[in-house]
Design brief:
Blueprint: E1 42-46, H1 49-57, E2 74-78, E3 81-83, H2 95-102, H3 112-122, H4 125-128, H5 153-168, E4 169-172, E5 176-180, E6 186-188, E7 191-194, E8 196-203, E9 209-215, E10 217-223, E11 226-228, E12 236-238, E13 277-279, E14 285-287, E15 290-296, E16 299-301, E17 334-336, E18 341-346, E19 349-355, E20 358-359, E21 366-369, E22 374-377, E23 384-387, E24 390-396, E25 400-401, E26 405-409, E27 412-416, E28 437-439, E29 443-447, E30 450-454, H6 462-466, E31 471-472, H7 475-483, E32 493-498, E33 501-502, E34 505-506, H8 511-518, E35 527-529, H9 548-558
Parallel strand pairs: 1-2, 2-5, 3-6, 4-7, 5-10, 6-11, 7-14, 9-21, 10-15, 11-16, 14-17, 15-18, 16-19, 18-23, 19-24, 20-25, 23-26, 24-27, 25-28, 26-29, 27-30, 28-31, 29-32, 30-33, 32-35
Antiparallel strand pairs: 8-9, 12-13, 21-22, 33-34
Helix pairs in contact: 2-5
Length: about 575
């Protein structure tokens, strides 16, 4: 005999009401986002990880990344705070517990502290750089296997991380609503993956790159959840990330691209050497391969483990101990990457975090296939609307855009710069860097936003405070985009800003565009004005932008958990 149906909790939010890109059909026209709110839906009320996993997958699963999620309509109501970093008995999973799952054939370590100390000695960048630079002008990557076939420390770390991923990364399938009940519902210690796909280096006869674990999802709603602390217990050090040496250094003194132990020449002698970063794996929400997604009325943050608890490695000397080289355990709050598109993120409260939204994770457009379907990554994906969100003490990527048509309107941001030496201001834990970032072939339409950024003794310009007075879109990547059979116009870089209120001063429309266009020289791509000759948001969906003067009150009243 089947159990009786579960009733929807009284007062719970609806799955209906999406607007922006989420409410536009991928092929044109409109789309009504319902999530799991459909005829014949199954209702789940979940209070722990095991119940949530069963609701998402339709069954109990051990490895959440080895199974496809359930796509039948379902309404999942979350009661209270659910920790995702727990075992089957709901007890916290420790670093050592994940290490033990790799087994003695992978690692002899039983203590993470001992492993971590050896890892940081082995890969100390001041020693690692005593090698010849590779063709990309950067040091070699950390190898995962040694010459004898055994796993290096990096290989062992990757195994530990893979075990954690199997536990805390949960796939979300089509026709799903996850809605918090009341004001205290949420998820901590894990990551939601909306759709999924794994890129490989293999190609088919047509030259398309092959994709495995291809899970397309559609029609998803996330509302009224406090999502926090997607903490990567095993972040990796990448000596290539952000590494650079000024070309003029080479050949001066002992600075050389090639390392020679006998003469002590090499890249370690170059005065301008810098870079390398700690990277973590988990966004709170990763929209990888999903369309018609509505993320509304949530609060997202780093929780009880802020970045300041993990500074740069104390034993690593300059120049590899700058703030950007903190041991990073958090990635994005909501990232939209790979084959994702038609997403609306509205009335959320993003706070106390570094990298907020990455839109498009790769600079190179490409054609892919899962062996059956033809897939594209480039200008035909990554359509996103961000509106009426509150950004409080968020550092950057608000958003950082590659390729996508992205509409940013009626958002409210507050933050503070790192104080100058003459300032008496208290240094913020998350110092403001930049709001909107213009990346490869991005189409960024920015409208009627409000920013209140304390300078703390600095004298940064409006261009520096808003888009960083820089662009990250190159002619070379634009050419690769057209090489992937995208139209030249679609591979262009576009920007438009209007109605911004920065520290109570209305910016003059066109000034930021002019500043951005000044950066579009040399190897950088030209920055075009985004207008109706190419695309404007109203061509894809109906909306009404509030005047900037009304935004702060609206957002403070309605953005975040318990306010919708």
């Amino acid at each position: 005999m089947s159990p009786p149906p579960v009733a929807r909790p009284a007062g719970a939010l609806s799955s209906l009401g999406a607007d922006g890109w989420a409410a536009a059909a991928v092929g044109g026209g409109t789309f009504t986002v319902t999530g799991g709110d459909q005829q014949g839906t199954v209702v789940h009320i979940v209070e722990n990880r095991a119940q949530l996993v069963r609701a998402l997958y339709g069954r109990a699963v051990t490895d959440t990344l080895a199974q496809a999620p359930d796509n039948t309509p379902k309404l999942i109501y979350v009661k209270g705070r659910i920790d995702l970093n727990v075992d089957d008995a709901n007890a916290p999973m420790t670093k050592e517990a994940y290490m033990a799952l790799c087994g003695p054939t992978v690692t002899a370590y039983t203590s993470f502290a001992a492993f971590d100390a050896d890892y940081k000695v082995a890969y100390n960048p001041n020693e690692w750089i005593k090698q010849s630079l590779e063709a990309d002008g950067r040091p070699p990557a950390l190898p995962q296997t040694a010459g004898d076939g055994s796993l290096t420390l990096e290989g062992q770390r990757a195994c530990f991380g893979a075990q954690q991923a199997k536990r805390i990364a949960l796939r979300v399938g089509s026709n799903t609503s996850i809605i918090g009940v009341g004001t205290d519902a949420g998820l901590t210690g894990g990551s939601l993956r909306l759709g999924d796909a794994t890129l490989t280096t293999d190609v088919d006869a047509a030259g398309r790159m092959l994709v495995k674990d291809h899970i397309q999802a559609k029609n998803i709603v996330l509302r009224n959840l406090h999502l926090s602390d997607s903490y990567d217990l095993f972040p990796s050090w990448d000596p290539k990330d952000s590494f650079s040496i000024a070309t003029a250094d080479f050949g001066v003194g002992l600075c050389n691209r090639v390392y020679d132990a006998a003469t002590n020449q090499g890249p370690h002698q170059c005065p301008s050497r810098k870079g390398g970063r700690w990277n973590s794996e988990y966004d709170l929400v990763s929209v990888f391969n999903a369309a018609n997604v509505w993320i509304d009325g949530n609060t997202l943050d780093d929780g009880d483990r802020p970045d300041k608890l993990d500074p740069p490695v104390p034993g690593w000397a300059a120049p590899f101990n700058v703030p950007e080289q903190k041991v990073q355990h958090h990635d994005g709050l909501v990232d939209v990457t790979l084959f994702a598109t038609h997403v609306t993120v509205s009335y959320n409260h993003f706070r106390n975090h570094d990298k907020t939204h990455l839109i498009g994770g790769i600079d190179v457009a490409g054609r892919y296939t899962d062996g059956t379907l033809a897939l594209g990554y480039g200008p035909d994906k990554l359509a996103l609307t961000l509106h009426h969100n509150r950004y409080e003490n968020t550092v950057q990527r608000q958003p950082r855009v590659r390729f996508g048509k992205v509409h940013v309107y009626n958002n409210y941001s507050t933050g503070a710069l790192k104080p100058t030496s003459g300032s008496t201001a208290v240094a913020p834990d998350y110092a403001w860097s930049v709001a909107w970032q213009i990346g490869t072939a991005s189409k960024l339409y920015v409208e009627n936003n409000v920013l209140e950024i304390a300078q703390n003794g600095n004298t940064k310009t409006a261009a520096q405070l808003t888009f960083g007075d820089s662009i990250s879109s190159t002619v070379a990547n634009q050419t690769k985009c057209t090489d992937a059979a995208y139209a030249a116009a679609d591979c262009g870089t576009y920007f438009f800003e209007t109605g911004t209120l920065l520290n109570d001063t209305a910016l003059v429309e066109g000034d930021l565009l002019t500043a951005a266009q000044k950066k579009g020289t040399g190897s950088n791509a030209v920055v075009n004005k985004l207008d109706a000759t190419y695309w404007v948001p109203s061509a894809s969906y109906a909306y009404t932008a509030q005047p900037a003067a009304a935004v702060k009150a609206e957002v403070l009243a309605k953005a975040g958990v318990g306010k919708r």
